[in-house]
# Entry
Amino acid sequence: VRVLYEAENGMQGLEVFREHRPDVVVTDINMPVMNGLDMARAIKALSRQTQIIVTTAYSDTDYLMQAIEIGVDRYVIKPVDQQKLMEALRECVKVTFLEREVQRHQEEREKLIVNLRSAMAQVKQLNGLLPICACCKKIRDDKGNWTQLESYIRKHSQAEFTHSYCPDCAQQMLSGGNQKNVDGV
# Structure
């Protein structure tokens, strides 16, 4: 807990909530102007993920049922045992932390999906039939321009090239046959 805010009544508590948006709200049921359950209802309408702890001297099941219907997260009976209140606060903070972790993981997952779709779109650019010259091995792009094979692949992918000789060409080079075989035979 970094910052605590205090309010004299439920209406003021709601205003403090609207202004500061705390992660956890601790309220009594019996408060002037607006009771704690009405304030909790208004807060949950603004922010379902806000954790609310209700303290009360009432052990009436009607109040407990209302608190459950509103979505109150913890219910502590007065006189308040400090250990029970601290445990309720720890649990609420833990839930808030876990919800944020889930949200962070979902956002990361969505970014990965966007990146994956982008990568798939790039891969799709290299799918399909490529018009290639049978003689010089240039590629015709979708605009009708003829480009060297290496240039085309560099432009449409992340591929880089290294140059070497295949065994047949290496043998031909070693035997002194420096003729370029253009028809692939």
Remarks:
- The chain has two domains: 10-105, 139-174.
- The chain has six helices and five strands.
- Helices lie at 10-20, 36-46, 61-70, 82-125, 149-156, 167-174.
